[in-house]
Amino acid sequence: MSRTGFSYDFPHASLVSIGDLNPLDVRMIFERSAVHFDNNRAGTRAERTLDGATLINLFFENSTRTLASFEIAAKRLGAHVINFSAGSASISKGESLEDTALTLAAMRPDLQVVRHSAAGAAQYFARVTGVSTVNAGDGAHEHPTQALLDAFTLTRRWGEVGGRRILIVGDILHSRVARSNVALLNMLHADVRLCAPATLLPEDADRWGVQVFHDLDEALEGCDAVMALRIQRERMSGGLIPSDREYRALYGLDHARLERAAPGCLVMHPGPMNRGVEIDGALADDRERAVILEQVEAGVAVRMAVLELISSASPNQRYVSDSGDA
Amino acid sequence: MSALLFANARLIDPASRHDAPGDLRVRGGVIAEIAPHIAPEAGERVIDLDGMVLAPALIDARCRVNPASTGAAGIEAAARAAAAGGIGTLILAPDSGAGLSRPEHFAPLEAAALTSPVRLLPAGLAIDSAGEMGEIGLMLRAGAVYVGDGGRPEPDTRLVRRTLSYAGGFDAWTALTCEDAALARNTCAHESDLSMRMGLPARPAAGERLAAERAAVLAELTGARILLDRITTSAALKALDAARARELDMAATVPVTHLMFNELDAGGFDARYRLEPPLRSEADRLALIGALKDGAISAIVSDHRFCTGEAKAHPFPEAEPGSANLEALLPALLTLCAEGRLDLLDALWPVTAGPAELFGLDQGRLAPGAPADLIAFDPDHPVIHTPGARVCAASSAFDNRRLTGKLLLTVVEGAIIHQPES
Prior knowledge:
The structure holds 2 protein chains of 2 kinds.
Chain A: H1 23-42, E1 54-59, H2 65-76, E2 80-85, H3 97-106, E3 111-116, H4 121-129, E4 132-138, H5 144-158, E5 165-169, H6 176-187, E6 191-195, E7 211-213, H7 216-220, E8 225-228, H8 244-251, H9 255-258, E9 266-268, H10 281-284, H11 292-313
Parallel strand pairs in A: 1-2, 1-3, 3-4, 5-6, 5-8, 6-7, 8-9
Helix pairs in contact in A: 1-11, 2-11, 5-6, 5-11
Chain B: E1 4-13, E2 18-27, E3 30-35, E4 45-48, E5 53-56, E6 58-64, H1 72-84, E7 87-92, H2 107-113, E8 119-122, E9 124-125, H3 136-141, E10 147-148, H4 157-168, E11 173-177, H5 181-184, E12 189-190, H6 193-198, E13 202-203, H7 205-222, E14 225-229, H8 234-245, E15 250-255, H9 257-260, H10 282-294, E16 299-301, E17 304-305, H11 309-312, H12 329-338, H13 344-348, H14 353-359, E18 374-384, E19 402-412, E20 415-418
Parallel strand pairs in B: 1-4, 1-5, 6-7, 6-17, 7-8, 9-10, 10-11, 11-14, 12-13, 14-15, 15-16
Antiparallel strand pairs in B: 1-2, 2-3, 5-18, 18-19, 19-20
Helix pairs in contact in B: 1-2, 4-7, 7-8
């Protein structure tokens, strides 16, 4: 691949956590993402940087959109993609996780994308197998490509996210999306706010370099973008929140609430949405405000950039790439 | 609303610790003027109190309405009894009716409030009997004064923690029953030499202490404001003092019955003294009175509960716990004063300024601009607390007790709502 403009090689053979990246890494990812984004829109399939590579999608948790996004991203770059998902015979035979990882690694994939319900799973797979690994969500820990695609979406809109006020509202406690986003947006010098009932906020959230709110109207004051997180149905019992009605009344995003935010405040959601709970249906459909589909579109471009960059840094890279400088 | 002038009163305002002769003018539902002497204006109704006490009307932070009449009628009956007891603000306990866990459950109360002589306010049920969190945020928006477990100590510490965190996000007081659930289960008496001789299933004072200590730990963890609902032992008082010394946001209420009675009153298996929590030792009672002098107790509550004669017509352990106390609250406190155990300012603070400060209410004080919620009483007049002389004739631990102190009138928002025949 071309590295014109960079005097720096992308150094990471895996992407497990936003904390692995520095601002220059993020800039490289965004620059490549922009190229892919435009190509994807134009229908151009010129960048075959993973031609001949094999990628395994290893999804121990159910997923439709993230799995599809990684699969499309890899295929657009010319890679062969094999999907293993939760419930498929290969990963539900009582085999230990280590055996599964080593078995698949023995087939010599070039890249693996891992989603698992346990925090630390992606790092575990990367360490045990030595295969270039992208974390597609590990428990409540991180989902770095989601944060990258969110920040990339905003960067496309604004030029940069630094200095912008961005609010994340919803179940922060259980959200890997929130953790990755806080890390990335802080790195990019955004003014980050979190808003949730106290039961859905980690105890030490005020030490995350963010402002913490329990009142959505206060939190929205002057925001340039607001990201609603999905509220899981199972949170409605067990004393985290009283009811979806109360959650909607206190933490649901709608047009009226957004009056408090900065003019033109963008609305984001990592999906899948509970319309009428964390986000009002009319707001989700408002193409002036909601960039939810743009996030999905950016997701493919950002994952293309991440896959090609980490594979370029992988010591195991064996396939022939078009640029010849790997 | 016509102007009203109370002349020649002994004005007692616990909020400012004011106790001196004076006059007080009411206009437009609020206190307009307080001065040693106020000249009557034309057309003004003058009530000469002839040295009797004029004080803020009482605020009762815990009254449980009859579960058998959960509708507006049951609440109205309680409101009338409250007026006759000098209570100007009645806060319905979270376990009123079938439990007030959603804002819709306030509807009967809102209906009753339209005609109620006294101010009616709800408290919300934070954890229902199924272990689910009530709609705390929506209830607080709908006017709940505080939220609480409604007299049912929750054994699941994680659920209590979450509830405290959630309610703490709204800066609300969460009332926790000061009992250890397992130690209190199926008991009806205070664990002591006496209850053991009587063969009553009993709970130790340590249960209260455990609950108070647990609450303190959870207050520290969550930063929430915790109201210990009805402490009755010196063990719990010590835990409360220790928590406050650590600057935790904790407060406590005490039921009026436990200031007046001890376990010996229930010694004859008299079901009228079957209370929840049970009557404690004399040392506990005296410790609670001592705490009133120190200002450690934020509110004395009537803990009124309507029990029918049938509900009480059982052997002591099987009788329904509870006592009708709305009309006994004031004379009971005045009796403690007449006995020399308390002065009027200390006795009245936890039923006026104490709960008003706790819950941010405007009433409960004698000050220009404050709501004209007032009572006048004769602190030395003996009364016999007979069921026939009361508005609420339900079973009461105070039945036929000789008390000292007679209510002369109750005023809410500048209107005289109760004035017994003299």
